[in-house]
Design goal:
heterotrimer, A alpha/beta (253), B mainly beta (70), C alpha/beta (361), A: 253 residues, Rossmann fold, 9 helices, 37% helix, C: 361 residues, alpha/beta, 7-stranded mixed sheet, 5-stranded mixed sheet, 15 helices, 43% helix
């Protein structure tokens, strides 16, 4: 190691101070940590730490409030978009974001999600899709793939019996209230950079006051998928992405 | 090629190795040693680092700091 | 001299909210209280006072929009009727758990289920015993006139902020729909963001530099710490029980019998007292204004002086249980009520007193 290089003027990357020093409780390799960091970096770069209010969900990322160093509220399962609506309507000069997983946003909170987007709430919604309920121990989620094994679909998701994986992001793009709808991932350096650009845009859009910005991040659940982190990311690429392809779905200029 | 290096907060590293998949110079790998939590933490294997920061931006736990000679 | 208006109880709630300086209303239509949202939309207070009014997609969303606003230190409220209030129980539990102030108005209709749109008082248990999951209480005010519908909006917010706990106005279809004259206040300005930031350090008002960020949550994974949260909340409730019990007494000085009734049932009992006293029955009224905290102490004191009490409620008998607890089986306590949306007549109430209490020894 070249110790002589370690000088302040040579610093090219460091942990953003908009993340607290708390060690995240997430499993090794979990995408939540990366996505938290990107949100924190965007808040830092925009200089809006004091003008941002976040809403944390129920699920693995329920404790997001321990890591993101902004004022933050913890919502009931699925209700984050309603909280974010209340906050933004009463504090329109603030940057407001919600952070939810697939069960939270696309199952129990479907109504709140759709109606917040349909009203065009001027907020940023972050949706982390790993196709499984992580916190409760790996049960089937609305986004669980056909044939995918979970603890409540132990023989694989049977479409006839259990319904189809829900592509809620495509659905939300149909609503006139959304102005920016995109699907990203964070398992490769280039994808992380793209995802950050998308999150930045979703936050910047709040300055325009034109509608809802929605960023889905297809992520992993190493424990739920029962795969080591690096293999889980390979599985994600090979299995999740064909169903949930990356890229912008809607971008209203 | 620019010279770079990284500083790893080994106590906070969970040894997921996701960062290693992004390194273009094969600089990093998990140690055979473990930290106090029992994780095989990340360490540099050589001094071929180019300071690209790929490892740091992949790291879910934000434990990597990157330096590069200007 | 204050301005006088002729208003429905529901309209009075809406007007009071605007004039009191409420920051936000989130609601969903349901009979018999839709006039509240309609009045607010027609008045369009935003350009005048900055009050936000939004029709939500459901009562579930309404109460969670209230959570978001309340956690910012804003004065926010929602209103509904029984089935809608049932949908809000999750949110109310979270709001109580996160120790946030807000106001909820329940213009009660008959249940269970979809029930009837006619007046009822059958949501007493739901309102005063918690309603949602976990150990919590709502501060419950029971207006018995249109004027009180108006006045209790401000009082409800004051108590909610005093204890950082949701407050509820438990009205019924009669009080919501009846028209009476109301003295209205001048417009009070809403709290400024500066005032809120200074006054409510628990609120998410934007992180202060060099200070810890504010987290509003009802989650505590550590049992020992969750117990401390519960103990703190319970201590708060004991304070509320000590300081903020409200009730009204009518003709109790010489009374041998007491009606215990709230809301529109108390109005019926006023007439029943007149009719009873014409017959020579010395009867008075104890009207709980706060249903929680319940006026236990005064009922206990009265139980040493009177021969019996009749709890008059438009339900199958809910508050009567608290009257029995307060009077410690010292005297005869019975319930009389109609339900399913039927309002008892004063004559029925007098007859019930005669048969269940006076003649029922």
């Amino acid at each position: 190691m070249n110790e002589s290089i370690i000088k302040p003027e040579n610093l090219v990357y460091r942990r953003t101070p908009v993340l607290t020093d708390n060690v995240m409780h997430y499993c090794p390799g979990c995408g939540h940590g990366t996505i938290h960091r990107l949100i924190a970096e965007v808040i830092e770069e925009m200089g809006i730490q004091e003008q941002t209010i976040g809403v944390a969900p129920v699920g693995c990322s329920v404790l997001a409030y321990n890591y993101l160093d902004v004022d933050i509220q913890e919502a009931a399962h699925g209700r984050a978009p309603a909280l974010a609506t209340g906050i933004k309507r009463l504090k329109p000069d603030f940057f407001v974001f919600s952070y939810q997983g697939d069960g939270d946003l696309a199952a129990i909170g479907t109504a709140e999600t759709i109606h917040a987007c349909n009203r065009g709430e001027n907020i940023t919604m972050i949706f982390v899709n790993n196709g499984i309920y992580g916190m409760t121990g790996g049960q089937m989620a609305p986004t669980t793939l056909e044939g995918m094994k979970t603890s409540t679909s132990p023989y694989g998701r049977d479409i006839k019996m259990m319904g189809n994986p829900l592509k809620i992001t495509e659905l939300l793009a149909q609503l006139p209230g959304t102005i920016y709808v995109t699907r990203q991932a964070v398992y490769k350096p280039a994808l992380v950079r793209k995802c950050k650009t998308a999150i930045r845009k979703a936050f910047e859009n709040q300055r325009l006051n034109k509608g809802t910005s929605f960023v889905e991040v297809v992520s992993n659940c190493n424990s739920g998928w029962k795969l080591p982190p690096v293999e889980a990311n390979k599985w994600l690429e090979e299995n999740m992405l064909p169903m949930y392809p990356l890229g912008d779905i809607k971008d209203v200029k | 090629m620019a010279k770079g290096t990284i500083v790893i907060d080994t106590e906070k590293c969970k040894g997921c190795a996701v960062c290693t998949t992004g390194c273009p110079a094969n600089v990093i790998a998990l140690s055979k040693k473990v930290n106090s939590k029992g994780y095989n933490y990340l360490e540099m294997q050589n001094d071929a680092c180019i300071g690209c920061a790929n490892c740091a931006i992949l790291c879910p736990d934000g434990v990597i700091t990157v330096y590069r000679e200007k | 001299m204050k301005e006088l208006r002729l208003m429905k109880g529901n309209e009075a709630v809406a007007e009071a909210a605007i004039r009191f300086g409420v920051d936000g209303y989130f609601g969903y239509p349901i009979t018999p209280q839709s006039e509240i949202l309609e009045h607010l939309m027609a008045e369009n207070p935003y350009p005048k006072t900055g009050m936000v009014v939004l029709q939500a997609e459901s009562e579930v969303a309404s109460i969670n929009m209230v959570y978001g606003g309340a956690a910012c230190g804003k004065r926010v409220m929602t209103t509904s009727s029984s089935p809608g209030i049932s949908l809000m129980q999750e949110g109310l539990s979270y709001i109580a758990g996160a120790e946030l102030p807000c106001l909820v108005v329940n213009v009660v209709r008959g249940g269970p289920g979809l029930g009837t749109i006619q007046p009822s008082q059958a949501d007493y248990f739901q309102s005063t015993k918690g309603g949602g999951h976990g150990d919590y209480r709502l501060i419950v005010l029971a207006p018995s006139s249109v004027q009180e519908m108006y006045d209790f909006v401000g009082l409800g917010f004051d108590l909610a902020f005093k204890y950082r706990n949701p407050a509820m106005l438990l009205a019924d279809g009669v009080i919501g729909q009846v028209m009476e004259k109301v003295e209205v206040d001048d417009y009070k300005p809403r709290w400024t963001d500066e005032y809120i930031k200074k006054s409510f350090p628990w609120a998410t008002t934007g992180k202060n530099p060099n200070q810890p960020h504010v987290i509003v949550t009802s989650l505590e994974l550590d049992s020992a710490r969750q117990e401390q949260v519960n103990l703190r909340i319970q201590a708060k409730y004991r304070e509320c029980e000590k300081n903020d019990v409200r009730f009204e007494m009518l003709h109790c000085d010489d009374a041998e019998y007491i009606f215990v009734a709230y809301g529109s049932s108390a109005r019926i009992c006023q007439k029943a007292i007149e009719m009873g006293r014409e017959k020579g029955i010395k009867v008075g009224l104890l009207r709980p204004i706060t249903l929680w905290p319940f006026p236990t102490q005064i009922l206990r004191e009265l139980s040493y002086k009177v021969k019996g009490m009749l709890a008059v409620e438009m339900s199958a008998g809910q508050m009567v249980e608290d009257v029995i607890l307060a009077t410690e089986n010292r005297i005869k306590v019975e319930h009389f009520g109609r339900f399913g949306g039927i309002i008892p007549s004063p004559q029925e109430v007098v007859t019930a007193l005669e048969t269940k209490i006076i003649g029922g020894k």
